[in-house]
């Protein structure tokens, strides 16, 4: 009995001793909860090497479209550089070359298995072959001048007259994707600059010649007037005048001639009239059609100045046979009702006399008694028309140029007389 009591007392003592010396430790073990899988499945960057340069694609996240704009690139076997969401995977692998001539799809798989499909579209247009100058503008005396562009001749021309062109800044518009040299909006000395070069995107080049103060023939007529249109009917010996811009026959190496398509027949200028206006110098050049030029229905008037050429639009139908040749008049001064007697060779049955701004064609009719003898060596006319005489209009004596006209009003030589 004592032994049992002693054992109980010993256990109780040990229990009390432990409770006094050591704190109670309670360990709480929570249940295990796993971290959620990522749902991120975006492509954030997509690069391709196009024409030797890295190009960043445009990503439209709303429709999952990645697009590129390029030209003339080889896109049949390209490995893209792609950045995408952490913990996601992508297929096909960026290391695998793809043919981007067709649309390519990339699938980004989030960590949780949710897919996202992106389409990659490369718009690879052909390299442009356009290499034209579309507009060429300069400013002269505070005025914007639009130059003339001739794409057939590959020529740009503008008029400056006598204005200084040593420091002109052109504004040039060219084909899309092309480049021009010298560049637009750069000051140039157009006394020395003679061309611009336009290079297309595909490398094709066109050179445009620069022409300042380009000569131009604007028209021609007899010194009396125009009696026939295109072609103008003329005899050799006809007195003519040609009009135009910058027809400076006094410049070194300049010349003017009749041209039949093969042969050049020089013209001797007998009188020069020049008028300067802003940006333009107008010329009128008088000449007589040489008598030694052969008949031809297709002559043109050509002006040359070094490398520049001006050609008449109209043509001349020229006859060198049976040419009217006035020799002399019976008087030097004529008054109303005088008889005009003209001697010569191959005299026609029509003449033209200018008066008071009009041109009177005179032939045998109810109004005129013009007669030509059978040998065509004498022409007579009674000058009874008051309108032919300056005195009727209160003016002094006036020298008039009488022109001989053959069949179909073919214009020939002239002779001068004074009318009262």
Overall shape: rod-shaped
What's the CATH C level of the largest domain?
A: Mainly Beta
What is the average per-residue confidence, as pLDDT, rounded to a whole number? Answer: 93
> Mind telling me the C-alpha Rg?
49 Å
Q: Would you identify the regions where 5 or more consecutive residues have pLDDT less than 50?
A: 1-20
Q: Which structural class is indicated by helix and strand composition? A: mainly beta
CATH architecture of the largest domain: Sandwich
Residue share in helix = under 10%
Largest sheet: 6 strands, mixed
Q: Specify the CATH homologous superfamily of the largest domain.
A: Immunoglobulins
Number of domains: 4
Characterization of the model:
The protein is built from one helix and 35 strands. The radius of gyration is 49 Å and the shape is rod-shaped. It folds into four domains: 43-125, Immunoglobulin-like (Sandwich); 133-212, Sandwich (Immunoglobulin-like), CATH 2.60.40.2340; 216-319, Immunoglobulin-like (Sandwich); 325-419, Immunoglobulin-like, CATH 2.60.40. Residues 1-20 have low confidence and may be disordered. With 420 residues, it is mainly beta. Helix content is 5%, strand content 47%. The N and C termini lie far apart (186 Å). Strands 18, 20, 21, 24, 25 and 26 form a six-stranded mixed sheet that branches. This is DUF5018 domain-containing protein.
